[in-house]
Amino acid sequence: MKLLTTTALAALIAAPAFADWKDDYQVVKFGILSGENEQDRLMRNEPIREYLEEKLGVKVEIFTAGNYDGVIQAMAADQIEIARFGSSSYAAAYTATDGGVVPTLVEMKKDGNTGYRSIVVTRCDSGIESLDDAKGKVHAFADPDSTSGYAVPYFNMVEKIGLDPKTYFSAIPFSGSHEAGVSGVVNGTFDTASTYENNDIDGIYQRMEDKGMIEKDVVCKIWESPEITTGPWTFRKNLPAEMIEEVTAAIEGFAEADPEGFKVYSSFDPADPNPDTGYQRVDHERYQWIVDMRQWLKDQRRGS
Fold this sequence. Notes:
Blueprint: H1 2-14, E1 27-32, H2 38-56, E2 59-63, H3 68-76, E3 82-84, H4 87-96, E4 101-109, E5 115-123, E6 139-140, H5 147-161, H6 165-168, H7 178-187, E7 192-199, E8 202-203, H8 204-210, E9 219-224, E10 228-229, E11 233-236, H9 241-252, H10 254-257, H11 259-265, E12 276-281, H12 288-303
Parallel strand pairs: 1-2, 1-3, 6-7
Antiparallel strand pairs: 3-11, 4-11, 4-12, 5-7, 5-9, 5-10, 7-8
Helix pairs in contact: 2-9, 2-11, 3-4, 4-12, 5-12
């Protein structure tokens, strides 16, 4: 009897080791930010959604929201399991969840680079050739949780350039998205706008040109930031560790397993000498400076 009890107890203890996270997560949702219009967002992310669904053997759904905060709050409320954040929105999610998120991967370029830059754009015929010329004009930031569209340019304007956007520009509205900011510049709603680019031929306004949303050579860059670490694929920390690792490993294999799908997802341009080619693992320390910068911005708003 004692032997039977010991055996039964050993089996009971061992049982959780054979439990599969998929039993509890038969649907996995990942959030994507509002950097571009919803139709294009869904189109670009459909190949990785299909790939993950087949690779993992669970239903995978894409979650979108009208602004960055919608995805952040969905993560904080346990409504989605994964999100592809920008650096600043990751920091916002980290703060909103009291550190309850885990970054695992960033996209990597052919040369091994994992960064991009914030830029300020204007109409090429506006007569504005630098931020000096933009004084007294209307400048649009993208979204308060955007790294390249708000946090980095605002921080650099104040701390590195020595101008206060609140008084330097005549108005500093949020456009709502990067594409909306660029469109506003083109149609004259804004004189300048903050957005981003990976290099001189790959960025928001260049993609809008390629898609026929705006004419070529209408938008020009007048400022660029130092390099920004690319935002991470991020998981809720309260998910099973095995799930986080298995999904992370699946995403790592996406570029090799589905090269054509990866090209759609990464907006591949054959003219780009340094395209996205895969992923690199990251941890939170890579983004602590962004958390600190966001706190600085919060203190600035509180002080004003």
